[in-house]
Specification:
This protein has helices at 5-10, 27-35, 49-62, 78-87, 101-109, 121-130, 151-161, 175-183, 205-212, 236-247, 251-257, 261-266, 291-309; strands at 16-18, 40-43, 67-72, 92-96, 113-118, 135-138, 144-145, 166-169, 188-191, 219-222, 230-233. 42% of the residues lie in helices and 15% in strands. The strands form two sheets. The chain has an eight-stranded parallel beta sheet with strand order 1-9-8-6-5-4-3-2. It contains 13 helices and eleven strands. The chain has 310 residues and is of the alpha/beta class.
Length: 310
């Protein structure tokens, strides 16, 4: 029922990408998602090139199935990592925070499929012209850096605007979300927040518990005035950041106050003063599971939902 173009293009069993979550999406998570039939993604984020190299090599040791690397184009290491994926034979690259156009010819020559993450129709069109193989259209319900449009309004507009497959992201955490995305014209989904509580996800238990215990109203988007808002679970840090916004600090002062906060939450386990990025769907997540269980549950539920509609 869900054997879409995404499965064919990326040689995967289920049309589901795991989100490229910085400091979270490592070889453990990516390999587990790929082994379960989706497309696992290693998130380069702002990490050094050698860290990314290590993650790619370890993923190859754990799975012979396709996986990808998410390159954050504002990273100081973006240029090096753009060449690294070619050197190590990575099959898929997803991109964020910029235009991958200058790398496209090189990646295409190496047979790499390129999938930019976008939050608007204009950017989706630009990425298609640049040679993207597919688009991840992400609504503002997602965790981490977000745009302005909701998934419900963004997906059908992007689907109508481009001729390449569209993968829906933002606020999708179960089979109902998958079915809805397909009804809007998407060929697949990208899931981030639900994989935060996967057994194979290396975030600390306190981070996972905060996601599981979250209510529907427990996320907040900070930093809208900077032009790069971030959705996180409410904590002491988010309250401080919102206060700084109200006080009218400069963008530089605001960004300095939050520097390194994601790594503090993920690596150091500080869920009070760390940036606990998660999407609005966190309120729906109530248990830890393996990646295989998560994926199979999502698609089994979606099948039942679609059959019910028929």
């Amino acid at each position: 029922m869900f054997d879409t173009k995404i499965c064919e293009i990326f040689n995967i069993e289920y049309p589901i990408f795991q989100g490229g979550m910085a400091w979270i999406a490592d070889h453990n998570l990516a390999s587990a998602v790929s082994e379960a039939g989706g497309l696992g993604i290693i998130a380069a984020g702002n990490a050094p090139t050698e860290w990314v190299r290590e993650q790619i090599l370890k993923t190859k040791e754990k799975t012979n199935k396709p996986f990808g690397v998410n390159i954050m184009l504002l990273s100081p290491y973006a240029e090096e990592i753009a060449h690294l994926v070619c050197e190590l034979g990575v099959k898929v690259v997803t991109t964020g925070a910029g235009n991958p156009g200058k790398y496209m010819e090189m990646w295409k020559e190496e047979g790499i499929k390129v999938v930019p993450v976008v939050a608007s129709v204009a950017l989706a069109k630009r990425m298609e012209r640049a040679g993207a193989d597919a688009i991840v259209a992400e609504g503002c319900e997602a965790g981490g850096h977000i745009g302005e449009l909701t998934t419900m309004s963004l997906i059908p507009q992007v689907v109508d605007a481009v001729n390449i497959p569209v993968i829906a992201a933002g606020g999708i955490g179960d089979g109902r979300g998958l079915a809805a995305a397909m009804m809007l014209g998407a060929e697949g989904i990208q899931v981030g927040t639900r994989f935060l509580v996967a057994d194979e996800c290396s975030v600390c238990d306190a981070y996972k518990e905060k996601v599981i215990n979250a209510k529907d109203i427990d996320t907040v988007a900070t930093g809208r005035f900077t032009g790069h808002p971030v959705r996180v679970l409410k904590n002491k840090l988010s309250r401080q950041m919102m206060l700084l916004e109200k006080q009218g600090v400069t963008i530089e002062e605001f960004e300095e106050a939050g520097r390194g906060a994601l790594r503090k939450a993920v690596v150091e386990g500080d869920i009070a003063m760390g940036s606990v990025m998660a999407g609005q769907i966190a309120g729906l997540i109530k248990k830890t599971q393996s990646c295989k269980e998560i994926i199979e549950e999502i698609f089994d539920e979606a099948s039942k939902v679609v059959e019910g509609i028929r």
